[in-house]
Design brief:
4 copies of one chain form a homotetramer.
Chain A (H helix, E strand, L loop, with lengths): L4 E2 L3 H4 L10 E6 L7 H14 L3 E5 L2 H7 L2 E3 L27 H14 L3 E6 L1 H13 L3 E6 L15 H22 L2 E6 L6 H9 L4 E3 L6 H12 L7 E6 L6 H12 L5 E5 L11 H19 L5 E6 L2 E6 L12 H10 L2
Parallel strand pairs in A: 2-3, 2-5, 5-6, 6-11, 7-9, 7-10, 8-9
Antiparallel strand pairs in A: 1-12, 3-4, 11-12
Helix pairs in contact in A: 2-10, 3-4, 6-7, 7-11
């Protein structure tokens, strides 16, 4: 069974064979905001216009779809947004959309606005919603993965992850200044309730002394080892990276335990929180968002539905929504080995 | 009574009239680390060497002084540090120094190392320690104010404050991306246990909707007003800046209260913590640290003691340690007025 | 004669005594763009609205005034711009405004739009234009100084200078990485045709080995000294900062000369150019732009005309346009002395 | 023929089967400096020490090898360098190494120091030198690709490219502020004498209006089209990205031509130059440099020689020096199509 298939963007430019069925598409962002969403909105809008489609921006996710909170998007409307964090179309949670009645309202709004197909920019929850709706009503969705957790099956890459990773690294570099100056241990909590990618790669990039991630329970022995014998000299400092979801309570709980067992140590906690989520996207987040935005329009023009655009080994692929579920990239065990080896 | 007097740096270059009494000086950092401390260490070291003095770096503050943790500093040793956060001489707390016995040990170590005078880079607590020691033993101290709180009497400027302020602004700009995207209220806690300068100026610079600082209790009415009638539309977001010490519990406690009174609002907390303290210093923090470092050596060459170097209206001044106590710059009421006026 | 006088912002809030003459003001940016201009536009707009005035944005400077390129500004229109570089009202040169006919057209446009008074955000050239026009026609101008050169008489501070300074420092920090890695000399050209402030303070902040500025010709001897004897060791690198206008040809010409006299040296040139001009403004640039924007509206409400708002020793002052000419802040000779002393 | 083969890092940890032949390795950086080189030096050093090897740092590239400019590297010596730009081991050109006599001297120095094998961090020229020397003398080299041009056959990734790309994007974002504010066209020249990757991806990421790269001559028609009809409205601004080597003379020459043909346009040039080369490496540059550093030591322990470590589809591979020549990654034509489509 083939889960995803590579696609040739060239088709889009030679679209003589296409039926002119598609006339107006919608685009919206859903779930947590991620840097690069605006670059994707811009690419979807302009690629659609270049292909003679009309574009409607749906504001505040599925909730805005239900309420008919729509705005027309012209080329100039997406000018100067490629470098902005957040999402100009905003995003929101919608409990109403979880009901059939809610989805029906949403469909009626799309009908009323003449929207033939929709590009949804978000995570696996957003795609599940799209799949459900497209099975109940006659509307096509194509998805673009955008989440700072990078935890989607079928794509090496989700929009926003790389920017978040660099925000983590930049913040920990600053914290290291104080850790070294005072000979302190900092327990730094980063986002990632079920996925430790940000903590793992952020920890490697910052030379963290210990990395605690939900995917590997052995790391707690590492922490013990570090504290017991590794941390003896009065000048030595340390950064312990913790993924948000490693333990309920996270960094604060671990700090409590460390202080109990090692009352002599000077231990501090830093919870990076929402500074990981905003900010101007990195070059790759912008380029990949742009490529995926163009590919999403291309897929709609090719009469595709219920697929997510992904990137695999640098190339654009299409993955059925059904397969594009939240699935942690198996953590590269080598990286943990490397971290342990270099922490000497 | 004149608290501080302006000084003419020119004297330093024409030092023919000086007795060659001073031969070796020490320099150390004390208290919390602040960006720009390294620029000050570099300036002290090179200004001293340019004046034919030997320089000893005292590591880990007063504790290192007690332990004789000294290293010679040559010009090359301070090369390439002007742009680094933290302090290459490290810093530490010392309970031992609070005792006479501790200070005696420290003095004996200085004696043994042939150190005639010392430049102390830190906050008011560090200067109080220096004053006590210089009154008990025959040793001169000159201070350079370095604290991100900018809460010293006698100087417009303490090293590190401006860098911290820009770190706050940079972080809140990112948080704003998410706040706007989701229509959320963020309560952002910044450092400043007794001084609200970081929260006030950071709040103005980020266009915060409400600023809560220890210096003004009326601001809580502002918060109430903002929540009660200002915050009605579903799209509106808000940043509420809180100085760390505004209330015991700070941002978390305020969030709890807001959620209790306004259960419909989507409220999040972000505690910026130690990312405010590190990082490469801003241009002004480097330039002023450099100027104060040179002026501190100049003061020692002029046989001064127990004074802090300060900057007043852009000019170097000297302030007796006795006067250079922690004293909050009275908050500029106009700034609060301005913030209220612009938040419409 | 008093050139400037301090003002009490408090008046603005107690404006019961004011005649309700003023009803609609214009605001525009003129000359080179400077980071913080948007913060000033926001403050002017909201302070005016808070005082029951209507606000019109004049686009593209005096040229837009002549063409009647006006847009109404409401509070929401200036939301989310405080952190943006450049100017949302744009700027332009206008030869037509230099003629009486041009200024007459501009005045008729203002008349037609019902604009009673105007806030001009720019440099000395912009203020001269405003002064001329206000003397010919019945219209009041108040100015806010914004130029990255910081070369205005009557104010310690012009909007954009500090951001530009930090952009210089950030760029030179990067160049230093390569200079040190290769043992190279870099000649770095920064903006400042007649004023060396950016080069001087940027050079101090980056630990530049030599600083060449138009205000001090002796510095060329410094360069010679540095190259002749200071630069001997194969590992030593150097940063030579040059203000754009130090010599016609600037950095390239100096590099040519250095290569001719020292063919053994590995010399490179970096012209920082327009990366000095853009970018998100620093905290101070935002706060001061905000304060001056509010003060400008206050001045108009106080029936002032032909004055520039300035900041002197941290306080708001008003300076007649006639006095607010381009005038280089006399370069602090101490800074050059310090630079020479520390470069050992 | 298999050019490269994937390797399993696990082997390194189970090295019971290895002969303890290797006892001391050297490591050096060569060619232009690239951000992330220090992360690679750190990883090589610590991975070697973790495998009971001694490590010698060879300073200033092949020239330092000839001169015996060696320093022992212990774990602590590479502490705190992972985040630094440039290279702490410095780099240099060596004409002497191009001669047999020079290489013989270098080999004798390695012999004398007891160095059994060497990790070379640099570009294709550095690897060619290593290959030549290893064929003449009994010494093994393993290479790590580090060049901001990302133009090596056999690896998707060279250290430093991603950081340079983000520096380009950050600089152009600033320039865009001024371009938009003034309605100006900026011609921005980025590095890449033979490879347009930085210009292409940087241009996509910044929404450049035209991208001129050596790999596609058709782009000059694009420029003509843009200037002829695209650029009509007085408010429209534009960024034209030019790879350094697109034409002799680069951006300045193009600007001259544009000004000649379109004297009405306000055209400026910005040559980004060496700010593209320095700075703190991005997260990926640090992580990949770390992975490749560990893999290089692993390869030496596996008795490999004359191979470059590469990354292919996210996995570590080994590529013979003979194949790892400078070869431009064929430019992704889709990206140029995308750029043209979105520039509407």
């Amino acid at each position: 069974m083939i889960l995803c298939h590579m696609v040739d963007n060239k088709n889009m430019r030679d679209d003589s064979h296409r039926k002119p069925r598609l006339q107006k598409i919608g685009v919206f962002t859903s779930g947590g905001d991620a840097p690069g969403m605006n670059a994707a909105i811009r690419a979807v809008t302009r690629a659609a216009i270049a292909n003679k489609l009309k574009v409607v921006g749906i504001r505040r996710g599925y909730q805005g779809m239900i309420e008919g909170d729509f705005i027309p998007l012209r080329s100039a409307d997406v000018s100067g947004i490629i470098q902005l964090g957040g999402t100009v179309l905003r995003t929101a949670r919608s409990n109403e959309f979880r009901t059939f009645e809610g989805r029906q309202k949403a469909w009626l709004q799309l009908q009323k606005a003449g929207i033939d197909a929709v590009v949804v920019i978000g995570g696996d929850g957003s795609f599940t919603g799209a799949l459900t709706m497209s099975q109940e009503f006659n509307i096509s969705f194509v998805g673009i993965p955008a989440t700072i957790d990078n935890d989607m099956y079928g794509t090496d890459y989700t929009i926003g992850y790389e920017t978040a990773l660099n925000s983590v690294v930049c913040a920990v570099d600053k914290i290291r200044d104080t850790a070294v100056s005072h000979g302190r241990i900092f327990i730094v909590e980063v986002m990632g309730r079920e996925a430790g990618l940000l903590a793992l790669n952020g920890g490697i990039a910052c030379g963290a002394e210990v990395i605690l991630i939900p995917e590997s329970k052995e790391q707690h022995d590492e922490l013990k080892r570090f504290l017991d014998k590794g941390y003896r000299h009065k000048e030595r400092s340390g950064i312990i990276m913790v993924a948000e979801g490693d333990e309920p309570g996270g960094a604060l709980k671990i700090a409590e335990q460390v202080r109990r067992e090692h009352p002599d140590l000077d231990v501090r906690v830093s919870i990076l929180g929402h500074i990981q989520r905003g900010g101007s996207p990195t070059a790759n987040d912008r380029v990949n968002a742009t490529r995926m935005g163009v590919a999403a329009v291309d897929a709609l023009l090719d009469d595709q539905k219920s697929i997510m655009i992904g990137i695999d080994d640098g190339k654009i692929v299409q993955v059925p929504f059904n397969k594009a579920v939240k699935l942690n990239h198996s953590i590269d065990g080598d990286l943990l080995d490397i971290q342990r080896m270099l922490n000497i």
